[in-house]
Amino acid sequence: MNSFESQKSLEFLKNSFREYYEKNRMALLPDRFGRREFAFTFFGGKGMLRHLSFSKKKDFIDFLKERVPAHAYYSSAYYQKPDAPSMQQKNWMGAELIFDLDSDHLPNAEKLSYTEALEQVKKEFKRLVEEFLLQDFGFDEKHLELYFSGGRGYHCHVKDPMVFDLDSNERREIVDYITGRDLRDTIIFRQYVSERRQYGRRIYSGIKTLRMPTPDQPGWKGRISRGIIEIVNEIKKSRDPIKKLQEYGVKKRNAEKLIRDLSDERVRRIKNGLLDQSKTIRSFFLNSALRKTAVALSAGETDEPVTCDTKRLIRLPYSLHGGTGLRVTKLDIDDLEEFNPLVDAVVFDDRPIRVRLLQPIKMEMNGENHKLQTGIQDVPRYLAVFLVGKKMAVVA
Amino acid sequence: MMDLTILAKYPFLNNSREYIKKNGPSVKDLLESLVYERARIIGIERLDNAFKNRDVGERSLATETDCIMELLSYPIARMIAVCVGDNFFKRRYALGEAYHAYKNLINEQTSFLIKVSKEFNLNVKYAEENKRIKIHFKDYLRNAPTRYKEWKMINRDMEKGYIYVSHKELARLLEEALRRKINKDLDSRECDETIYKVFSSEISRFQNMVMIHRKKMRTTPIGKLSVEKLPPCIKNLLSAIQAGENVPHMGRFAVVAFLNSLKLSVDEIMKIFSSAPDYEEDKTRYQVEHITGSISSTSYSPLGCEKMRTYGICPEEQIDEICKKIRHPLNYYYRKWRQKEKEEKTSTKEETGL
Fold it and tell me: pTM of the full predicted structure?
């Protein structure tokens, strides 16, 4: 890549983005925009322009049109003086509760393609929204806003006024709940002692059994129970149960032992809610069910979940992501299943653009299959923006 | 009208306040009349007990007079606490009231607890279908000691925003809500001149008590630790712990891990916590030993500045020149050491140069 090409590429992205920002003015205005801090980074620029605030809609729209940021962010917090240069001068008034799920945090992220990774995050995101936020926390659907981030993940903004004044410790508790941290196995598995029996003069203590919660119990109990049953079914159905267990991270020797222990009789007992006291079985099931049902939340620069930070910046809804050209797109809960970022978050047309591909690509975008070799060629603009943004191509 | 005994037992209730307003004596009589001498004595007893035993104490409520005196002693104690004007003293008094209420509340009917919850604006419901008490998760979060594992939200049954709690647990949540309520109330009031005059000898006795307590704390040397070299974050946490403020788990963790890195022993660290109004020796010892690695396999390393910031325990308004240069609170301490040494060296040089 020579500097001429990279200059041209930046110009191309900037012009395309400007066109979008000129056309879509009103959609970009977030609620309470006068109380929020805004921050931007620019094409070819270094660092971030922070502590901005806008009191007039027009100023905000003009700013986007004139400066054409590569990435646009706003604060999930509301401030009395959003443009004050330091945090304490801003005077914090409250903050939405933000959940950020990113494919970087999937355990096998590096092996997955962009599309596969997005698909996996979506599953997890759906679980976060449906099982945790709506079911357990009982938030009203009308207070949840879901967004595709334009990059590799999804965001959920909880706008129930009740959450605004939660401090970061309280937010951390919520995060711990969702990520499954510090779950106690003695609370999940309860020991029951069956009745004592008397034979002649001697009294024999009853048999201890470990009971597992039932799938319909609320919160984590039901969740763990459902997870365990699912895992048992998977293992039993699988042709190579030992291999299946290895996928769950069980060592071969332990897997063999587990399969030996997992007789049909035991499986029947597990489904009836009786978990035998073999320690390996118990800890294996608890840990795998936990991993299966908890949600991995993205961490900020300091490895702290974004959710705990009450002063966080988050990508501006409807803005464009400078690394993909995709739009930060609002989703309905019901549309989550169907949503395909590589169609639904695409904003540019298919006017041909001459680019030089730096690597061969094979992907589906905007409903079309693109299988391209390296070198100079014409591609539709939406793909050109995506590839140039991801630095997989330059404008020729 | 509620039973007078109930009003006397729970003088913080609206009904109790209204009763005093309607049937109670004038402030002048309450402060001066011989008739209310007993109420004034009990008021002072409340404060003494709270300071010494973390509980304002139990008195007989057999007769109507007993009840009225007990009831009237509450506002008197509060007014004096404000005039003593010391944070530690006020916190300790609030804890004493709250703990005493808790001890009484566990013996009441659940319906009474729910009534009190309503008065504290806690969203609590009694679920008829399974005869269980549930509380909205936000009110739970605000008042539950989630630094203990069994109180963590994840180890609770939660459904549609409500967390199930037992009768005793609800009483515990009310205790915390009351403690916060009294703290807030004490902080928002100013000392009244008349009260100050009437109780001046008691007030200075309390102030002395606090001073002696402080001195005792200060003169017990904390190992080789030099307090003035501590970074502002740790200094703040320490004084908050000693003033009995509700320091979150992470704050406590940060202090213990920090002090452990400075080679303070478990006992020395315990000493610091022992002055907290809600100190419980076994629990503290267990946790300190856990963090320092003396009963667990890992010794936790103290948090860096970044982490302190995200946990909201870095006092950003107190950041000084040294803070700007370092990324870990420990380095603040070391830098101060070096600075001091340098200063000493240069001063001795000057001396020898003369």
Answer: 0.80
